[in-house]
Amino acid sequence: MTLQTGTVAVVDDEDNIRETVAYALRREGYRVDLYPDGQLAWESFDKALPDVAVLDILMPRMDGLELCRKIRGQSERLPIIFLTSKDEEFDRVLGLELGADDYLGKPFAMRELVARIKVLFRRLSLDADGAGDGDTESLRIGGLALDLSRYQATWKEQPLSLTVTEFMLLHVLARRPGHVRTRAQLMTECYPHDAFVSERTIDSHVKRLRKKFNQLDPDFAEIDTVYGLGYRYRDSSDPKEP
Fold first, then answer.
1. Is 0.70 surpassed by the pTM of this model?
2. Percent of residues, the chain, with pLDDT higher than 70
3. Is the Cβ–Cβ distance between 100 and 93 less than 8 Å?
């Protein structure tokens, strides 16, 4: 097994979750810093940020949402993953709006958390190197280009800053333009091990995707809502439906 490198901060007020996540990540070779509340974490982050942050939402002294705001005040690109309970849907969606990269609902599959952290570190490494490993896969459709090894996207040659889940959702839609993907299908493909993803979360991801595209191109309208079903990606070369 190839060991990984990098520092992951795990911020959660539940001792067993902190220790279980730390054990799994250390087995993979990551350095892990543990914090029982947001205030202690921020006091450390204010001096030096980790490479990836895993945050609980409900915590004493400073909750995960406030900690996310503070982190985003220092870094727009530091990957943040929320751990949330089943009944925290509103806070979970708000966390995504604040700039979190992803979330997993408790109870979560440890292999899913580790897999997503590996993807985030791979993206960070490729960004730092400025080059891929020679086996880059790509998808192009109209003005959209997806680099499948880097989890990076561009629209009309302009880079899009997407979270891992946003990229996965966009890829699922764009690889079969014109085909409708139901919310259930999108949930399955973007969260294959998480039983607590809701349709509202998928809608939130799509809303953020559209916002990011529109910041680059106010005329972007390639992601269609098919009411009662889900979403589809429309090739810009196709005529709009009336």
1. no
2. 82
3. no
Q: What is the CATH number of domain 7-128?
A: 3.40.50.2300
| Placement of tokens 């097994």 in the chain | 1
DSSP 241: P
What is the per-residue pLDDT across 5-34, written as a single tens digit (0 to 9) for each? 789 999 999 999 999 999 999 999 999 999
Q: In the chain, list all ranges with CATH 3.40.50.2300.
A: 7-128
Whether residue 133 has pLDDT greater than 50: no
Q: Six-digit token pair at 23?
A: 């054990």
List phi, psi (to 5°) of 226: -105, 100
Query: Could you tell me the maximum CA-CA distance found in the chain, to the nearest angstrom?
Result: 56
CATH of domain 132-233: 1.10.10.10
Under a CB-based contact definition with an 8 Å cutoff, are residues 4 and 121 in contact?
yes
Contacts of 218 (CB under 8 A, 6+ apart): none
| CA neighbor of 209 nearest in space, from 151, 170, 154 | 170
Residues of the chain with CATH 1.10.10.10: 132-233
